Amino acid sequence: MYQLHEQLRQFLGLGLSIHIGACDAATGPTLSRALAVQLRPAARLAVLLPALPGQELLDAIAQTAQVACVFCQPTSHIAIQIKGRDARVEPAWTADWPELTRNHHGFAAEIAPFGFGPEFADAWFDVPGAQLQVVSFLPTGAWNQTPGPGAGAPMELFA
Amino acid sequence: MSPRPAVLARRAGDTQVSLAEIRRMFEGVIPAVLCTASSEGVPHLCYLSQAEYVDAQHVALSFQFFNRSRQNILANKRAALTVDDPYTAGGVHLRLEYLRTEYEGPLFERMKAKLAGIASHSGMDKVYHLRGSDVYRVLEVRRLQGRRELAAPKARCDLPAATRGLSERLAACAEMSELLDEAMAGLREQLLIDHAMLLLLDVASQRLYAVASLGYAASGLGAEIELGQGVAGIAAREGVALRVGHLTLWRTYARAIRQRAADQGLEGGADEIPMPGLAEPRSQMAVPLKLQGRVLGVLLLESEQDQHFSYDDEDALTIVCTQLALQMSLLQGGAAEPEAPPPPAPVAAPEGEPLLLRHYAHNDSVFLGQDYLIKGVAGAILRALAEDWLASGRCEFSNRELRLDARLKLPDVVDNLEARLILLQRRLQERAAPLRIEKSGRGRWRLRLERPLRLELLD
Fold it and tell me: What stretch of H or E contains A110?
């Protein structure tokens, strides 16, 4: 069974700012902040996001199955974009998501040097379990998205 | 393009808000994220270094690189943007329609200056520059629901009342030195600003020199920076107000770009330039002093707090700086100065060890013994006064005479002579020098010596 490249696996375990985007024909592009990412068997990725602000996005994904996710480490500004073409929306069981607490704390530590207290991360991460949804997909491409010249260069996806 | 009614109905939990209500979110503290899509519907996300509030219907996004987002925008004109409120952790989702790219004009200049201000913190301006300002019509603004928003921070002061108080204090000043002192004291007492520096432009050398400061360990009077250097230098060069709220964040951002540029084999620009004032400011705002379309100088404000200066501060300080520019111009004198100097009172030559005053012609710098004192026009003034004293024992002089003195090489239009004399006076005081200049009447000054002078003229 193949898996994601070690470099990506390591990066996705850091405290990250995560966004997910999609586009359907009628409403056009749309995006939402996600709260955690999970490595799944067979190199699939899953991201956890609040359903309320993300409803339009979830509808677009259900319709097109195309997604783009960007993961960014705030202190280094290193960012990676990963895309998929078979995305599906799933219910979320918070018990299955230790990554949520880990990223909550990791992200809070990442933004602390910029003067943001833990309450700032709490405002984003303290979402009732019933309001969470999952989007999972098999990555089809990864690109370095760190700002500056050369952003957009493709990265090795699988080991 | 407009959203379908069905889509609007489905978003029962979302709140539609106006763009004007969320202006403060466009501070660039938390990078905005743009979502575009290719003609085939493949989504693409991109962090933006700048999302600028234009007016109640439009935003502008920085166009810096030819990338996938750019291709998508030109192909289908549709985009979505999320912006987070750095104060409350709230956020908005904007649906956008691309209209045009501006390559010149006030909007472009403002965004370019802001970007250059950011780049100046790492000397990255060669790599990191604005190609254009992409202007979008905002079709819809939705507040993101489900976040546990924090209370918005309390305003630092009652800004309109504080601005009025400062304005009245400035209006009461009849002397340049009083105006400079009141400006600094008023910033502290009315607007509760702890660190500030007022710099004036020397047109000939294209440098800015500090004539007043507030809240620094050393006054920094006479310190110079190049036009275009740092946030203050760029605000003065471009004639636009600049605010950088989270300098720690921008420093790390610039480092990331510099690393990428080095990876790409691109020139990384000069070493980081030390900023005047605080060693590690967390917020800066620079507001140009403009009069009749010209930039006379710049007021730099700094804070050790993140996002200390708001859009509202920028509005208030822009008004204050306009008044300051006008009043400084009036107090430069000219018409009100006396025609001819009264005969100078006889002054006894001082006794004691001669004071060595060295003047270097290449930059008009003056040293007292081994110690640097000042350079530029203020240095040229001191040299001229010393020469006249040694030649004829003269110690009284007027602004009018100095304006006509070819040794000073004053510009024709804006000479800031009075401000330069005050700068010289204060530098001599700071150094406890045995020679001083002091006002002896309107538009008139006197040289005072405690020791004999020896003048050395060097290249």
Answer: helix A98-111
